[in-house]
C-alpha cells in the first residue's frame, strides 16, 4: 500500500425554514414513494446562464448507520488503460469524504506489472498515481485475482461488507445503458451503487457538472446517497452544477437537493422530454462539461426505458466526458445519513 497522503446553493438559515423543509420531505416520501407524481408548480423557463463470499481480503466495515462522516469504501477495477484509470482514480478520490480514511481499492487480474519482461519494466499503476500526486489524501491498496474474471470476483464479494461503491469505465459503444460486461453483471447481481464514467480529459480540466434526474428517481431509496456523492464530486473538483429535471416544478428538486449535506452552487432547469434535453444540451453544453445521469435498475422506482438509449444520446451532444450513476438498490433506511442534521 502506498500512502499518498463552493459556493452555497441555498442555505437554510432558520429553524422554522428547516422544520418546514424537513416536514415537506417527510410528507413527500410518505405519499410519493412507488406512485407517479404530478407536476404542480408554474412553468420554469429552460436555459442556462452558461451469493458466496469472495476470496478477496476486504475487512468488514466498522462504521454504523449512526456515523456522520460518510466515507465510502470504493472499488475500482483496473482494465489496462492506464491513462483512463488515472482519471477514474481522480474522480474516485473526489467522491470520498475529504476527512475520511477509507482506502481506495484497485482490483486487477494477474500480477501487477505483467507477465513478460516488457510489461514488468512499465511503472505500476500505483507508481504512476504517486508520481502524479492525484491521491494526495487517499490510501491506495491493490488487490489482484488470478482467475482473470473481475466480474465474478466483484459479484461474489458481499457488497454490504466489502464495498460501498464501484467506480468503473463506461463503454458508450455498448447497446445497453450499462455498457460493458462487468458493469452489466454487477448491476444485475448486486445491490451496490455503480458509477460508470468515460472521461475524455483530466478531471481538473472539467468546467461544469450537468446532472440529469429522470422522473420519479427522487422517490428511490438511493437518491440522497447519489446526490450527496455528486455534490461531493462537484465541491472537490470545484464544478458549478446544472440540474435537469423532467418536471415543471424545479423548486421541488431544489428543496430536496438542499436537504442533502454539502453546499454547492447549482441551478435547476426543466425539460419536457429526453428529446428536449438532447436539444438543450446541443446548444447549451460545452465539450469540457461532465454530463451525468442518475439511473436505477429495471423495475425499480424511477426506471425509464429511455435509459437504454442514453449512451446513444450522449454520443450526439457536446460533452465528451459522461457518467451513468446507478443508485444503490432501493434501501430507504440507508438514506438518512446523507441528510442535514441542523
TrEMBL record:
Q: Where is the composition biased (Low complexity)?
A: 43-55
Q: Where is the composition biased (Basic and acidic residues)?
A: 60-71
Residues annotated as coiled-coil are none
Q: Where are its TM segments located?
A: 6-27
Disordered, as annotated region: 33-76
Keyword line? Membrane, Transmembrane, Transmembrane helix
What protein name does the entry list?
Sodium/hydrogen exchanger
What species is given as this protein's source? Natronococcus amylolyticus DSM 10524
Amino acid at each position: 500500500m502506498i500512502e499518498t497522503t463552493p459556493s452555497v446553493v441555498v442555505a437554510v438559515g432558520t429553524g422554522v425554514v428547516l422544520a418546514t423543509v424537513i416536514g415537506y420531505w417527510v410528507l413527500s416520501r410518505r405519499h410519493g414513494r412507488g406512485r407517479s407524481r404530478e407536476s404542480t408548480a408554474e412553468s420554469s423557463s429552460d436555459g442556462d446562464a452558461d451469493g458466496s463470499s469472495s476470496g478477496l481480503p476486504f475487512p468488514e466495515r466498522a462504521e454504523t448507520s449512526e456515523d456522520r462522516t460518510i466515507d465510502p469504501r470504493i472499488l475500482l477495477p483496473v482494465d489496462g488503460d492506464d491513462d483512463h484509470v488515472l482519471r477514474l482514480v481522480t474522480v474516485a478520490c473526489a467522491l470520498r469524504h475529504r476527512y475520511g480514511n477509507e482506502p481506495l481499492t484497485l482490483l486487477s487480474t494477474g500480477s501487477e506489472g505483467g507477465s513478460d519482461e516488457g510489461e514488468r519494466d512499465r511503472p505500476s499503476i500505483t507508481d504512476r498515481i504517486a508520481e502524479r500526486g492525484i491521491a494526495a489524501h487517499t490510501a491506495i491498496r491493490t488487490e489482484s485475482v488470478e482467475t482473470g474474471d473481475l466480474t465474478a470476483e466483484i459479484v461474489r464479494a458481499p457488497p454490504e461488507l466489502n464495498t460501498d461503491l464501484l467506480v468503473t469505465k463506461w463503454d458508450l459503444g455498448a447497446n445497453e445503458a450499462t455498457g460493458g460486461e462487468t458493469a452489466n453483471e454487477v448491476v444485475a447481481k448486486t445491490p451496490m451503487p455503480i458509477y460508470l464514467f468515460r472521461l475524455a480529459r483530466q478531471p481538473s480540466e472539467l468546467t461544469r457538472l450537468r446532472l440529469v434526474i429522470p422522473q420519479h428517481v427522487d422517490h428511490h431509496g438511493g437518491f440522497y446517497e447519489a446526490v450527496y456523492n455528486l455534490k461531493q464530486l462537484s465541491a472537490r473538483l470545484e464544478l458549478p452544477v446544472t440540474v435537469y429535471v423532467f418536471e415543471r416544478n424545479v423548486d421541488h428538486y431544489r428543496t430536496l437537493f438542499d436537504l442533502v449535506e454539502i453546499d454547492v452552487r447549482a441551478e435547476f432547469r426543466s425539460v419536457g422530454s429526453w428529446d428536449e434535453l438532447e436539444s438543450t444540451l446541443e446548444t447549451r453544453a460545452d465539450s469540457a462539461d461532465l454530463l451525468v445521469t442518475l439511473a436505477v435498475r429495471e423495475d425499480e422506482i424511477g426506471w425509464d426505458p429511455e435509459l437504454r438509449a442514453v449512451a446513444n444520446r450522449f454520443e450526439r451532444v457536446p460533452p465528451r466526458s459522461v457518467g451513468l450513476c446507478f443508485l444503490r438498490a432501493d434501501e430507504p433506511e440507508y438514506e438518512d445519513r446523507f441528510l442535514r442534521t441542523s
